[in-house]
Design goal:
single chain; 372 residues; alpha/beta; Alpha-Beta Plaits; 5-stranded parallel sheet; elongated
Amino acid sequence: MITAYIGLGSNLGNRQDNINSALGMLAEISDIEVVRISELTETTPLGQAEQPMYLNAVAELRTTLSPYDLLKTLINIETSLGRKRLEKWSSRSIDLDILLYGSEVIDSPHLTIPHPQMHLRSFVLEGLAALNGDFVHPVIKESLSGLANRLNGCDFVHNPDLPQLVSIAGIIGVGKTTLAKKLSTRLGCQMLPEPYDTNPFLPDVYAGKQELALDSQLYFLTERVEQLDNSTLEKGQTYISDYVFDKEPIYSRQTLTPEQLTLYDKIYQSSNSKVASPVLVIYMLDSPGNCLERIHKRNLPYEQKIELQYLENLEAEYNQLFSNWKICPVIRVKTSELDYTKDNIIDDLAEQIKYYIAEDSVITSVVKQSKI
């Protein structure tokens, strides 16, 4: 017998009764054993906001049915419970999806396993993680718990009509630019570098000239807004930036006086709506001590006055930012585990990024299993 995981959802009629009825019908089939069921969770509809809320759950099955016979069985149960097949993401009395079938990988015209969008859905991953969190996704090669942690309780949808911006975040000296260069080469996409070396005010600010701190921050702000302008970046095109725009308030709070900060915040808020939001963040992690050592080794004169306490403050601010992050998935990467001399390390990360950007190969596979 094979262990399979099924996603269940309903947003029409008595939602809990619909899910219980589907589970009961599955349990009556001689080739299927319903082993465990996750807790029911209520979720917001995808795609169309004006729908009733969903109830969702994940069931663990043991079955001797083939993946295709299991799919036919699920479709028959959906039909018997009144499922109407309309447009994608329309309301439905019951929705049954094969999420995983053992460790098998299937990519056929009628069935894709693992489900091609499950890594973007917290309501799926959290249910799966509750049942078998250590199970490794057969394609992405990450545990189900790890994939769930990337979403911070949110659900996301590929949107090819937006720039596919991947932003790399982390404190000074953590290695953002090096990683961005290598990933942009692997993915064959444009890199958007932080205007760090071209800022004419930065050396004086690091030298202690507080009166130029606002000029420095505004220079960064205007350059980044121009670089990430939503109307300039091409729809569907992948870009990698070695910074995340939302870090702007972190640095302004560290460097500006209260009076400067008030003016800066007004300009920042008016600019925020113009920039493209990332579809994925790579959050690089390392100790402030290691980052300070790296800063000293690269020996940029104006950085040599950076102190450990400053980096520790930045680390705390970044951790706070990403603890509440709801914009896109976040992949956390430890710099100590990135051996840039080994091509496979960067290749593996580049391969994972592909599942979070709306490339044609990802979008076309979504329609095979339609429901989540």
